[in-house]
Design a protein that fits this description.
The complex is a heterodimer of chains A (379) and B (44). Chain A has 20 helices and no strands. With 379 residues, chain A is an all-alpha fold. Chain A is globular, with a radius of gyration of 22 Å. The model of chain A has no long low-confidence stretch (mean pLDDT 89). Chain B is mainly alpha-helical and 44 residues long. Chain B contains 1 helix and no strands. Helix content of chain B is 91%, strand content 0%.
């Protein structure tokens, strides 16, 4: 009788007995993400499920990420098959208005310049001893594009998935803190006060409908490995612009995006098991991700300055910082910074153009890297 | 052992392809917009 009670109590204590320091630390990490999401409003739609996922997976003996466990099932079905990030892309396409970009297509070049950091960080990661595929996944953090980072790392560096995705989303939410000092440092007062005129040319509906189709074909032919990414974002945008399938558009930007965001967040959180996550490598990934975003901003502003010269002072270099994929935060930062120095300056629509260019640029950068690696027989 | 040749190739081809493809897209947007305007004029 007493023996049975002792065994029963032992069963109840098993969770406590199996608790280790890495689990405790990662539960703390999960709670920190919850705090940042709930209290500070940092990417709450992702930080709340990621944080909770991290707490869940670090409770010993829960078995959520064991074979047959609920989070493992979601992970295998949605992340490893790339379904979750691709469905998110349909939603992003359905939510994005490429109008400001189509009104001034030259701004797409800022979206390309905003991807410099990806490639420079790739070199840095290789120099630090990461494998080619690990380095590609780390460099992609610089795209400031969560779904792209998840898509690439889930396929080519699944052991880095947790670190890469948390870094990507953390830095996305920190864009308003990271970018302004770099923008100020790289531009003169005169450059920051440049007023950009109102865009007058209006884009026809036909152009808006043709744009996603054309982009898919051109980008797909150049970098076939990126067809799933660019195809899904452009499918969402085509549905939005054609107006013929409003039910599908609404479902993509609301119900589907919400459900997938929840499942994606909680499964990414579930990759943050203490023993696997708490490694010096994770800190290096976070450090490199930070470097990538800083370099993107530097390259974007520098390219903005170059465009200013070529356009005889009609481009405010501050909008170059919006050439990353963090939409619409980066565009808002350009607008706020511009207004700090000239209250009558409205850079928002121009910055939105660069920002949507950055979305296409980041997807292209990922697709190009994968296609080049495949072409060289490394995938 | 770091394969620097491969790394430089990825960066060189990568950046060129990103810029090239987006430049191509810019050209295509301008061209389509122009063609559409011509067609609209003719129809009117």
């Amino acid at each position: 009788m007493i023996e049975a009670i002792v065994h029963g109590l032992h069963g109840l204590l098993a969770g406590f007995l199996h608790m280790s320091l890495p689990n405790v630390l990662m539960i703390g990490g999960g709670l920190l993400l919850l705090y940042l999401g709930i209290k500070k409003g940092f990417e709450p739609l992702l930080f709340v499920p990621i944080g909770f996922g991290a707490v869940l997976v670090n409770i010993p003996l829960g078995g959520l990420m064991e074979e047959g466990g609920i989070l493992r099932t979601f992970y295998d079905a949605g992340v490893m098959t790339e379904i979750f990030p691709l469905l998110i892309f349909v939603g992003i396409g359905a939510m994005t208005d490429f109008g400001p970009l189509l009104e001034n297509p030259k701004l797409l070049l800022l979206g390309a310049a905003g991807q410099f950091g990806i490639f420079l960080t790739l070199l840095l990661a290789l120099a630090l001893g990461f494998s080619k595929l690990d380095a590609v996944s780390i460099g992609i953090i610089g795209a400031c594009d969560g779904p792209t980072a998840i898509y690439v790392s889930s396929q080519y560096a699944p052991h880095l998935l947790g670190a890469v995705s948390v870094a990507a989303y953390s830095y996305m939410s920190l864009v308003p803190i990271i970018q302004p000092p770099i923008m100020k440092f790289l531009t003169t007062h005169e450059e920051r006060t440049i007023k950009m005129g109102v865009v007058r040319s209006s884009v026809s509906r036909t152009t808006k409908i043709l744009f996603p189709i054309l982009t898919t074909i051109i980008a797909g032919l150049i970098a076939p490995m990126g067809v799933p990414l660019i195809g899904m974002i452009m499918l969402g945008n085509l549905m939005r612009e054609c107006g013929a399938v409003s039910r599908l558009t609404k479902a993509s930007e609301n119900e589907i995006a919400n459900v997938v965001t929840l499942l994606l967040g909680i499964t990414i959180g579930a990759t943050m098991e203490g023993h696997a996550f708490l490694k010096p490598q994770t800190l290096v990934v976070f450090g490199l991700g930070f470097v990538a975003i800083c370099l993107d901003t530097v390259a974007g502003v520098a390219f903005g300055k170059l465009m200013k010269v070529f356009t005889r002072g009609r481009i405010n270099p501050l909008i170059g910082a919006a050439g990353i994929s963090a939409y619409p935060m980066a565009a808002r930062v350009a607008q706020i910074e511009g207004q700090k120095y000239n209250r009558k300056n409205y850079l928002l629509m121009h910055a939105m153009g660069a920002n949507t260019g950055g979305q296409i640029g980041s997807v292209m950068a990922a697709a190009v890297m994968l296609s080049v690696l495949k072409g060289m027989g490394n995938i | 052992m770091i394969d620097w040749g491969l790394a430089v190739k990825i960066c060189f081809f990568g950046l060129s392809a990103v810029f090239g493809s987006l430049a191509l897209l810019i050209g295509a947007i301008y061209a389509f917009e122009k063609i559409l305007k011509i067609l609209e004029k003719r129809l009117n």
